[in-house]
Protein backbone atom coordinates (compact mmCIF):
# COMPACT_ATOMS: atom_id res chain seq x y z
CA UNK A 1 0.00 0.00 0.00
CA UNK A 2 1.22 3.48 -0.86
CA UNK A 3 3.90 2.28 -3.31
CA UNK A 4 3.87 3.41 -6.95
CA UNK A 5 2.52 0.68 -9.20
CA UNK A 6 5.85 0.06 -10.91
CA UNK A 7 7.71 -0.30 -7.58
CA UNK A 8 5.05 -2.64 -6.20
CA UNK A 9 5.34 -4.71 -9.37
CA UNK A 10 9.13 -4.91 -9.02
CA UNK A 11 8.87 -6.02 -5.40
CA UNK A 12 6.35 -8.70 -6.30
CA UNK A 13 8.63 -9.89 -9.09
CA UNK A 14 11.60 -10.14 -6.71
CA UNK A 15 9.49 -12.03 -4.15
CA UNK A 16 8.28 -14.53 -6.73
CA UNK A 17 11.82 -14.98 -8.04
CA UNK A 18 13.08 -15.78 -4.53
CA UNK A 19 10.23 -18.21 -3.99
CA UNK A 20 10.95 -19.97 -7.29
CA UNK A 21 14.69 -20.13 -6.59
CA UNK A 22 14.03 -21.60 -3.12
CA UNK A 23 11.68 -24.28 -4.44
CA UNK A 24 14.06 -25.28 -7.24
CA UNK A 25 17.04 -25.51 -4.86
CA UNK A 26 15.44 -27.31 -1.90
CA UNK A 27 16.35 -31.01 -1.56
CA UNK A 28 13.18 -33.11 -1.69
CA UNK A 29 12.66 -36.74 -0.63
CA UNK A 30 14.60 -39.41 -2.55
CA UNK A 31 17.38 -36.92 -3.32
CA UNK A 32 15.29 -34.93 -5.79
CA UNK A 33 16.28 -31.34 -6.61
CA UNK A 34 13.84 -29.85 -9.10
CA UNK A 35 16.35 -27.38 -10.50
CA UNK A 36 18.53 -30.29 -11.60
CA UNK A 37 15.80 -32.19 -13.50
CA UNK A 38 16.47 -32.35 -17.25
CA UNK A 39 13.64 -31.00 -19.40
CA UNK A 40 13.29 -34.32 -21.20
CA UNK A 41 12.50 -36.01 -17.87
CA UNK A 42 9.37 -34.03 -17.08
CA UNK A 43 5.86 -33.42 -18.37
CA UNK A 44 4.22 -30.13 -17.37
CA UNK A 45 0.43 -29.84 -17.05
CA UNK A 46 -0.20 -33.41 -18.19
CA UNK A 47 -3.85 -33.65 -19.22
CA UNK A 48 -5.84 -36.82 -18.73
CA UNK A 49 -9.27 -38.34 -19.24
CA UNK A 50 -9.82 -41.07 -16.68
CA UNK A 51 -12.56 -43.50 -17.64
CA UNK A 52 -14.97 -44.50 -14.89
CA UNK A 53 -17.83 -46.91 -14.49
CA UNK A 54 -20.83 -45.96 -12.36
CA UNK A 55 -19.46 -44.59 -9.08
CA UNK A 56 -21.67 -43.13 -6.34
CA UNK A 57 -20.67 -40.98 -3.35
CA UNK A 58 -21.49 -43.90 -1.05
CA UNK A 59 -19.12 -46.19 -2.95
CA UNK A 60 -16.24 -43.70 -2.98
CA UNK A 61 -16.69 -42.61 0.64
CA UNK A 62 -16.71 -46.25 1.70
CA UNK A 63 -13.61 -47.01 -0.34
CA UNK A 64 -11.70 -44.05 1.14
CA UNK A 65 -12.69 -45.05 4.68
CA UNK A 66 -11.70 -48.67 4.06
CA UNK A 67 -8.24 -47.61 2.82
CA UNK A 68 -7.55 -45.21 5.69
CA UNK A 69 -7.87 -41.87 3.90
CA UNK A 70 -9.54 -39.42 6.28
CA UNK A 71 -11.13 -36.69 4.19
CA UNK A 72 -14.41 -34.76 4.47
CA UNK A 73 -17.44 -36.78 3.38
CA UNK A 74 -17.98 -36.36 -0.36
CA UNK A 75 -21.20 -35.50 -2.12
CA UNK A 76 -21.58 -35.49 -5.91
CA UNK A 77 -23.80 -36.74 -8.71
CA UNK A 78 -23.05 -40.37 -9.63
CA UNK A 79 -20.15 -40.65 -12.06
CA UNK A 80 -20.34 -42.47 -15.37
CA UNK A 81 -17.99 -41.62 -18.21
CA UNK A 82 -14.74 -39.71 -17.78
CA UNK A 83 -12.94 -37.55 -15.24
CA UNK A 84 -10.91 -34.79 -16.89
CA UNK A 85 -7.97 -33.09 -15.23
CA UNK A 86 -4.44 -31.72 -15.43
CA UNK A 87 -1.46 -32.73 -13.32
CA UNK A 88 0.98 -29.92 -12.52
CA UNK A 89 4.11 -31.99 -13.05
CA UNK A 90 5.06 -35.60 -13.78
CA UNK A 91 8.77 -36.36 -13.82
CA UNK A 92 11.28 -39.19 -13.77
CA UNK A 93 14.14 -39.31 -11.26
CA UNK A 94 16.57 -42.21 -10.83
CA UNK A 95 14.32 -44.43 -12.93
CA UNK A 96 11.14 -43.77 -10.93
CA UNK A 97 8.14 -41.64 -11.84
CA UNK A 98 6.63 -38.98 -9.57
CA UNK A 99 3.52 -36.80 -9.48
CA UNK A 100 4.01 -33.27 -8.14
CA UNK A 101 1.38 -30.68 -7.28
CA UNK A 102 2.05 -27.06 -6.34
CA UNK A 103 0.05 -25.54 -3.48
CA UNK A 104 0.09 -21.82 -2.69
CA UNK A 105 -1.90 -22.08 0.58
CA UNK A 106 -0.77 -19.50 3.13
CA UNK A 107 -0.28 -21.43 6.38
CA UNK A 108 1.81 -18.81 8.21
CA UNK A 109 5.18 -17.08 8.24
CA UNK A 110 7.50 -19.46 10.11
CA UNK A 111 8.98 -22.92 9.53
CA UNK A 112 6.66 -24.31 12.22
CA UNK A 113 3.68 -23.27 10.10
CA UNK A 114 4.92 -25.62 7.36
CA UNK A 115 5.92 -28.53 9.61
CA UNK A 116 4.87 -32.10 8.85
CA UNK A 117 1.92 -31.76 11.26
CA UNK A 118 0.69 -28.52 9.67
CA UNK A 119 1.00 -29.95 6.18
CA UNK A 120 -0.88 -33.11 7.22
CA UNK A 121 -3.73 -30.95 8.55
CA UNK A 122 -3.94 -28.95 5.31
CA UNK A 123 -3.90 -32.13 3.22
CA UNK A 124 -6.86 -33.55 5.16
CA UNK A 125 -8.88 -30.32 5.32
CA UNK A 126 -8.77 -29.79 1.56
CA UNK A 127 -9.27 -33.45 0.52
CA UNK A 128 -5.96 -33.42 -1.34
CA UNK A 129 -5.61 -37.16 -0.67
CA UNK A 130 -8.41 -37.92 -3.12
CA UNK A 131 -6.85 -35.55 -5.66
CA UNK A 132 -3.49 -37.32 -5.62
CA UNK A 133 -5.09 -40.77 -5.67
CA UNK A 134 -6.87 -39.83 -8.89
CA UNK A 135 -3.65 -38.35 -10.31
CA UNK A 136 -1.71 -41.46 -9.34
CA UNK A 137 -4.22 -43.72 -11.03
CA UNK A 138 -4.15 -41.59 -14.20
CA UNK A 139 -0.35 -41.73 -14.35
CA UNK A 140 -0.38 -45.44 -13.51
CA UNK A 141 -2.66 -46.15 -16.45
CA UNK A 142 -0.55 -43.87 -18.68
CA UNK A 143 2.73 -45.59 -17.77
CA UNK A 144 1.20 -49.05 -18.04
CA UNK A 145 0.47 -48.32 -21.70
CA UNK A 146 3.76 -46.58 -22.56
CA UNK A 147 6.61 -48.07 -20.51
CA UNK A 148 7.71 -51.62 -21.39
CA UNK A 149 7.65 -53.99 -18.39
CA UNK A 150 6.28 -51.22 -16.15
CA UNK A 151 5.61 -52.26 -12.54
CA UNK A 152 3.98 -49.83 -10.13
CA UNK A 153 5.79 -51.10 -7.02
CA UNK A 154 9.18 -50.76 -8.67
CA UNK A 155 8.73 -47.79 -11.00
CA UNK A 156 6.41 -45.32 -9.23
CA UNK A 157 8.14 -43.10 -6.66
CA UNK A 158 5.06 -41.41 -5.19
CA UNK A 159 3.36 -38.05 -4.99
CA UNK A 160 4.86 -34.77 -3.80
CA UNK A 161 2.72 -31.86 -2.66
CA UNK A 162 4.79 -28.69 -2.32
CA UNK A 163 3.30 -25.88 -0.24
CA UNK A 164 5.60 -23.43 -1.96
CA UNK A 165 5.43 -20.59 0.59
CA UNK A 166 7.19 -22.86 3.08
CA UNK A 167 9.67 -24.67 0.83
CA UNK A 168 13.08 -23.13 1.51
CA UNK A 169 16.52 -24.77 1.68
CA UNK A 170 17.15 -23.53 5.25
CA UNK A 171 13.71 -24.42 6.66
CA UNK A 172 13.66 -27.91 8.21
CA UNK A 173 11.15 -29.99 10.13
CA UNK A 174 11.18 -33.42 11.76
CA UNK A 175 9.22 -36.27 10.18
CA UNK A 176 7.38 -38.96 12.13
CA UNK A 177 10.39 -41.27 11.84
CA UNK A 178 12.67 -38.61 13.38
CA UNK A 179 14.35 -37.69 10.09
CA UNK A 180 15.07 -34.03 9.33
CA UNK A 181 13.34 -33.02 6.10
CA UNK A 182 12.49 -29.80 4.27
CA UNK A 183 9.40 -27.90 5.40
CA UNK A 184 6.31 -27.53 3.23
CA UNK A 185 6.45 -30.97 1.64
CA UNK A 186 4.05 -33.91 1.68
CA UNK A 187 5.39 -37.16 0.18
CA UNK A 188 3.44 -40.38 -0.05
CA UNK A 189 3.38 -43.48 -2.22
CA UNK A 190 0.04 -45.30 -2.15
CA UNK A 191 0.52 -49.05 -2.05
CA UNK A 192 0.20 -51.06 -5.25
CA UNK A 193 -2.85 -52.83 -3.81
CA UNK A 194 -4.54 -49.47 -3.06
CA UNK A 195 -4.12 -48.25 -6.63
CA UNK A 196 -5.21 -51.60 -8.04
CA UNK A 197 -8.33 -51.42 -5.87
CA UNK A 198 -9.10 -47.85 -6.99
CA UNK A 199 -8.55 -48.90 -10.61
CA UNK A 200 -11.14 -51.63 -10.09
CA UNK A 201 -13.61 -49.27 -8.39
CA UNK A 202 -13.48 -46.82 -11.28
Description:
By secondary structure, the protein is an alpha+beta fold. Helices cover 37% and strands 27% of the residues. It has helices at 5-25, 57-66, 116-125, 128-146, 152-155, 192-201; strands at residues 42-55, 79-93, 96-103, 156-163, 172-174, 180-182, 185-188. It has a five-stranded mixed sheet with strand order 1-2-3-4-7. Strands 5-6 form a two-stranded antiparallel ribbon. Helix 4 (128-146) crosses helix 6. The radius of gyration is 18 Å and the shape is globular. The model has no long low-confidence stretch (mean pLDDT 89).
The value of Rg in angstroms is 18 Å
Order of helices and strands: HEHEEHHHEEEEH
Average residue-wise pLDDT? 89
The general outline is globular
Number of helices: 6
Into which percent range does the helicity of residues fall?
25-40%
- Stretches with pLDDT under 50, minimum 5 residues: none
Structural class: alpha+beta
Short description:
By secondary structure, the protein is of the alpha+beta class.
Blueprint (SSEs and pairs):
Blueprint: H1 5-25, E1 42-55, H2 57-66, E2 79-93, E3 96-103, H3 116-125, H4 128-146, H5 152-155, E4 156-163, E5 172-174, E6 180-182, E7 185-188, H6 192-201
Parallel strand pairs: 3-4
Antiparallel strand pairs: 1-2, 2-3, 4-7, 5-6
Helix pairs in contact: 4-6
